[in-house]
Amino acid sequence: MKAIGSFLTPEQRLSDLAKGKNSGTKIIVTAAITGSIHTPTMSPDLPITPQQIADEVLRVYQAGGAVAHIHVRNPETGQPSSDMALFREVLTKVKSRCNIILCLSTGAGLGMTTEERLRVVSTFQPEMASLNCGSMNFGIFRPLQTIKDFKHPWEKAYLAMTEDFVFPNTFKTLAEFFQVFSRNQTKPELEIYDAGMISNIAYMIEQGHLKTPIYLQFVLGILGGILASPHSLIFLRDHAREVLQDFVWSVCGAGRHQIPLCTMALTLGGNVRVGMEDSLYVGKGIKAKSNAEQVEKVVRILRELSLEPATPDEARQILGLKGLDKVNW
């Protein structure tokens, strides 16, 4: 297994694959189960209730996923929620059934306060949680152009408000986030939506708020962030190499870009994230019935490249996590 922070150049990875040789790197497959971007009207199969979310996590685990990225929703309306009781129900149901890594969201629903977003870390002391690394326009209002009738009144208003919304992650709040993460021994999954966020991370390391090695999740294709393209992915990876030291990285792409960008990441030495938070489809024009369908597809692809999905415990070793026995649920 490669040491944390070591890299394969595209030439090294492609050379290994051309020889039919496994590079020695196990691939961490993450599934973002439900998110806070899509709304119930967009898919009848979007997991909503704690039981549905927990069942999806088990399917992801059985399909080869090592990490599940967790948001929760109001079980009656599907609206994004920061209710700790809903999180606890999901976490305990999953822990009783498998040892998958649960990465809790501190993005929560758009418009929530810093305190609301951090509560999952201080309450549950998870092995890993997401940490958004800079402020940005975060536009998810485009579906309003095509969807006229919604199942719930909140959906239209929620999407519409993002046309005039800035997702705030200031230097002050980033420092506060890192303090809470450090205090609870929670590894941050550093979510990168644009190049400036890499510079923000470098500053946080310089100021002592964040210690290496770090884990980067490149998020491509959100309106307001960097475009989802091969050039963007190579640029972000190379820029991170310039200004950061020890890191492991992964990528997710919004919508139709999900599988192509994940496939590209596999040839560049990266890990991958799929899931219904990022895309509701498993192929062109084919809606996913579950997150597991997307995991199964990316696992097939990585195995065609003579790679193997990491188990949860292998992913813990790669990422340097504290272990499932040290969480608070």
Concise summary:
This protein has helices at about 10-20, 50-65, 85-95, 115-125, 155-160, 170-185, 195-205, 230-245, 260-265, 290-305, 310-320; strands spanning about 25, 30, 65-70, 70-75, 80, 100-105, 130, 135, 165, 185-190, 215-220, 245-255, 270-275, 280-285, 285, 310. It is α/β, with parallel strands linked by helices and about 325 residues long.
Write up this protein.
It is a single chain. α2 packs parallel to α3 and α4 (114-124) packs parallel to α6 (171-183). The protein has helices at 10-18, 50-63, 84-95, 114-124, 153-160, 171-183, 196-206, 230-243, 258-267, 291-304, 312-319; strands spanning 26-27, 29-32, 67-70, 72-73, 80-81, 101-104, 128-132, 136-137, 166-167, 187-192, 214-220, 247-253, 271-274, 281-283, 286-287, 308-309. The chain is of the alpha/beta class and 329 residues long. The protein starts with 9 loop residues before the first helix and ends in a 10-residue tail after the last helix. The protein is built from eleven helices and 16 strands. It has a single domain (10-323), classed as Aldolase class I (TIM Barrel).
Which sheet architecture does the biggest sheet show? 8 strands, parallel, barrel
How many domains make up the coordinates? 1
- CATH superfamily assignment? Aldolase class I
Proportion of β residues?
Answer: 15-25%
Mean pLDDT: 92
What is the C-level CATH assignment?
Alpha Beta
User: Structural class of the secondary structure composition?
Assistant: alpha/beta
Estimate the global geometry from the Cα principal axes: globular
Question: What's the SSE pattern?
Answer: HEEHEEEHEHEEHEHEHEHEHEEEHEH
| CATH architecture descriptor text | Alpha-Beta Barrel
Alpha-carbon distance between the termini?
Answer: 30 Å
Percent helix, as a range, is: 25-40%
* Count of alpha and pi helical runs: 11
Q: How many runs of DSSP E, i.e. beta strands?
A: 16
